[in-house]
Amino acid sequence: MNLDQAARTTDAGPLGIDLQGAARRFGSRWVLRGVELQVRAGEVVALTGRNGSGKTTLLRILATLLRPNRGTVTIFGRDAAKDPDFVRQRLGFLAHNPGIYDDLTASENLLFAQRMNGLRPDAAERAAVLDRVGLTDAAHDRARGFSAGMRRRLALGRLLLRPPLLMLLDEPYASFDADGIALVNELARETAARGGCVVIATHDLDRASIVMSRRVDVRDGLLFPVAAPDRSLQLVRGGK
Fold first, then answer.
1. Mean per-residue pLDDT for 214-230?
2. Over the stretch 38-88, which tens digit does the pLDDT of each residue have?
3. Residue 239's pLDDT is what?
4. Across-strand partners of 32?
5. Which uninterrupted H or E stretch holds 16?
6. What are phi and psi of 209, to 5 degrees?
7. How far apart, in whole angstroms, are the C-alpha atoms of residue 8 and residue 240?
8. Can you give the pTM of this predicted structure?
9. Distance (Å, rounded) from C-alpha 74 to C-alpha 77?
């Protein structure tokens, strides 16, 4: 899938994510205060910060699940507020809650995802995805009996049904063994390799450092670069 030609470019290449002054409040509390974030096609960015700092809020804005109260969000050249379907068609979001349907089997969960995403129901593809995420033996088991790690593997499998260009991962290493952690990083690398963008919100820098291009930290509703000078973001302060 080619990047939209309208995407803004930098000296290092086209931007997949371009946040300009994005701010979000809940009630009277500003969680994000004028955030600017630019992620080039092919980058994997680790997003760090304390619990409650706004990491998940930022991911939900990028996923078009929340709108910023101020500022703009541009994904591969399109305004996310004006064209959310464009973003969602390119999106793979692993939320902290994987959203698995307990009464469906692993295969049925993937079938439901195929139908909901307008994909052709394909049993062979579902079987291949389950094999990739290590759930072949559980294909016909109901998800209510799955461990936390199995549920997250199945959620990763949903992303593989339509490989994303925008991959957003919220604490993706939680509940995973070594093989699951390696799988997360493989999928992040594959997304970046096909010209996509990956943002990983995580407390687990040891695992994320294996795959990340750079790191930014969320503090007081702003982004702070934590990387080598030539790879870091410039801190941009927003309105209060």
1. 82
2. 999 999 999 999 999 999 999 999 999 999 999 999 999 999 999 999 999
3. 40
4. 24
5. strand 13-26
6. -65, -20
7. 27
8. 0.88
9. 6
Q: Give the pLDDT of residue 14.
A: 78
Six-digit token string for 97: 């809650």
At 12 the pLDDT is 45
83 CB-contact burial (10 Å; exposed 0-12 / middle 13-18 / buried 19+):
middle
Backbone angles phi, psi at 86, to 5 degrees: -60, -45
Note the pLDDT of residue 227.
Answer: 53
Q: Which residues does 121 contact at the CB level (< 8 Å), separation at least 6? A: 111, 114, 115
In the block, tokens 């930290």 appear at 217
- H/E stretch holding 219 reads strand 214-219
Three-state SS sequence of 35-89: EEEEEECCCEEEEECCCCCCHHHHHHHHCCCCCCCEEEEEECCEECCCCHHHHHC
Three-state DSSP class for residue 177:
coil
- Exposed, middle or buried by CB within 10 Å (0-12, 13-18, 19+), for 149? middle
**Location of structure tokens 């507020």:** 81
Residues 111-131 have pLDDT tens digits of 999 999 999 999 999 999 999
